[in-house]
Amino acid sequence: MTIMLQKPPSAAWNPESVREIAERLKPLDGPLLPILHAINDQFGFVDERALPILADVLNLTRAEVQGVVSFYHDFRRSPAGRHVVKICRAEACQAMGAERLIGELEKSFGVKLGETSADGRVTLEAVYCLGNCALSPAALIDGKLHGRLDAARAQAQVGK
Amino acid sequence: MTQLIYVPDDAAALSVGADEVAQAISAEISRRGLDAKLIRTGSRGLLWLEPLVEFATPNGRIGYGPVSADRAAALFDDPGHPKSLGLVEEIPWLKSQQRLTFARCGITDPLSLKEYESHGGLKGLRNALKMPCTDIVEQIVDSGLRGRGGAGFPTGIKWRTVAATQAAQKYIVCNADEGDSGTFADRMLMEGDPFLLIEGMIIAGIAVGATKGFVYIRSEYPHAFAKMTRAIEVAQAGGLLGRSVLGSAHRFDLELRLGAGAYICGEETSLLESLEGRRGQVRPKPPLPAIEGLFGKPTVINNVLSLAAVPVIMAEGAAFYRDFGMGRSRGTMPVQLAGNVRRGGLIERAFGLSLREIVEEYGGGTASGRPVRAVQVGGPLGSYWPPRLFDTPFDYETFAEKSGMIGHGGVVVFDDTVEMAKQARFALEFCAIESCGKCTPCRIGSTRGAETLDKIIQGEQVSENMLLIRDLCEVLRDGSLCALGGLTPMPVLSAMDHFPEDFAAVK
Ligand SMILES: Cc1cc2nc3c(=O)[nH]c(=O)nc-3n(C[C@H](O)[C@H](O)[C@H](O)COP(=O)(O)O)c2cc1C
Ligand code: SF4
Ligand code: FES
Predict the structure, then answer these.
(1) Chain A partners of B337 at a C-beta cutoff of 8 Å?
(2) Beta pairing class for B36-41 and B3-8
């Protein structure tokens, strides 16, 4: 069994592959989260239209599936930007100036925390600890962890 | 003789360029046509020195760090390289430690079962396989091991309950959600010595009669997830996991699950809900997970570090482990030193080390060079400590007496630019963001509290608003189902009590 992880979204919406993913992972104990992760990874977000399919395959109500999707921060309801910057704003990073760094990035990307830039280039999001607290400030940029981050290095990453 | 060269493949080391350094070294090996081999390890935990490159010599490994990719080639020319640290094992920061759990981390190839064994791995499991199951449980009880996830509950007692509960299926669940800011020991261990965790879980399974385990890893740790995935494959192929553990009559299967970005899913009942595929809402206790846990079955749920302490106890005996520590805190604690600190990283020492030794001797003060003003110990629900309390020893009971907790062992350092009213506000904001929504004080009160602190910060009716915060903290403490709401008062009240000058008036 493999759970897909951190690959760039590879597919446009299609109900067949949603059903295929759900059927494939259904034998797992507690399949819903692995299925949602797989969909989120493959399409870049969890499309509203996937919910009834999952409900059908797993024999759940649509409301149950909806409730799970909305509970977890990871499952997107709409596509993210081409680059995703998840910046840590927990205490160890605060102690190393994370709030200032966030302000600088908001300015240079032209977004507020939690938003995607109008040109679709970058999504800036908050996370609470990446386990890199001795090398703060930290961010996960397109799935890759960065430590001792500054605005220039973050910009260089999303400029690519 | 082949020259062995070691570069960490640990997420923290990678975050400051370890892969680029490894590539530069490989390129240099081929360019010079050297008889040399590059081995990727975990991290030694001397994180301010990452990327830390080591060269094997007849006397031991010589370290260089921090190494940048453009300077890596020069390491081959120059034993007197400016970044030379001498023998890594002799660096006082490391030499003074008591590494029981992190004995192999940073030394061995994390995915080589052979190296794991040649460095003492599997000895605990082999001993366990020769014992009656109840003796394993009693060894863990006797060792004095307490849960490293935060609450400090005796691990052996929990196992005893699961062992005594009859059921056709039981589970071992490893809590690798490691949500506390300032902590990274679980991550380092999963990336640097994953077989140790796997061995600990197998022993737990044999002890209580569970044949299946799950490791719930937070999604913020993609590298640890990938490493654990590979390690499980290797363990299956090596006969460690599966139908017959090391040829014995015991079966043990292990699967990984990925969290989805919710701090509350580190709380054990919320984690079980999440594993079952539901919203991560906290379950009322009783029933205890030990009796009705995952899918309603008896379940051992333990933190990574608790399970990873088990093989050493089974290899060296309960008394060996218990001889480390002070009071009712037995064994060693992997302290994680983080934030605004010069020398941050992983410090595994017997309980009893003082905060001063951690922050000043290991840490060497702040990274900014300014005075230390506060440390937060035990994650986002832990207290803020002023320097005048730094003589407090790392010990569950002593910390509790002083209205603090050691939690998962994170120590976050702040310099004198910190504004404690803002830190108190953040604690309430964090509670609001991460609340599972079951209890009103936690869900709504936290937001009201953050607004009230905004007023205090702006100098509005400060003393009245301070009283409001104290009242709210009481309500949170008494009216919360779990420790997210219940312990949020800790950082808030400790900030107010130890740093009253920051709440006085407009600054
Ligand atoms: C809000 C909250 C978050 C928690 N997060 C974690 C965590 O990330 N990792 C962990 O091991 N325990 C965490 N715990 C503690 C667990 O509920 C539980 O006590 C622990 O997994 C038991 O294992 P142990 O006895 O080995 O510590 C958390 C508790 C609360 C209330
Ligand atoms: S205290 Fe908060 S997180 Fe804990 S059960 Fe209540 S609402 Fe959920
Ligand atoms: S607090 Fe930012 S990485 Fe841990």
Answers:
(1) 134
(2) parallel
